[in-house]
Amino acid sequence: MSVINKLNQQLVDLFQSQLCETALPDLDLKLWLLEPPETESFSPAQVEAIWSNMPYWAFVWSSGRALAQYLLDNPGLVKDKVIADFGAGSGVVALAALKAGAKQAWVVDIDNAAIDACEENARLNGLNVQGVNGLSDLPQVDLLLVGDVLYDPRNHGLAAQLFTDNWAVIWAESRAQTRLSHYGPVASLDAETLPNLGGFDEHKQIHIYHHRV
Description:
The chain is of the alpha/beta class. It has a single domain, classed as Vaccinia Virus protein VP39 (Rossmann fold), CATH 3.40.50. The chain is about 30% helix and about 25% strand. It contains six helices and nine strands; from the N terminus they run H-E-E-H-H-E-H-E-H-E-E-H-E-E-E. The longest helix is centred in the N-terminal third of the chain and has 13 residues, at about 5-15. It is globular and about 45 Å long.
């Protein structure tokens, strides 16, 4: 069974849906994303099922989409660098970094299905990424890219840890973060999550922070 078929089987079993090849013209990328119903919106029961078993890798989240756009608009930030996309999900940030000139891209996610999805999305765009499950598994990288992970209380100490450990980080969050007050805010962009889950994604202004070393 192909990787895409295995990923699809998870989605069919849980949500009676599957992945479809989705173009993102604003980023000049294609991703395998959860196929919305013919009505173009999920039913309340489907939304509840998705949130209970969230396949983060089957969406392109607003923060990742904004960070990807920011990198494409500012390619000098990643040109010739080895980058890592933390909490990668679909891998959209890593793919944008490669399109902007990054030398190598790693994707970091605790979910092996997400790493599979990142690799398939890279293949769809004629690119290549390598996946690991944690920061400690990475080789030396020049820049860490982080998108919207502070919704999870388990990650609340991450900003301070990365700052203390002197990582070079570009961080995107859908809420202004006091935890990122020691990072330099550099931009705000508007972006939406795809596919849309019916109005849940209220935080569409994404704040970009940068810690240089």
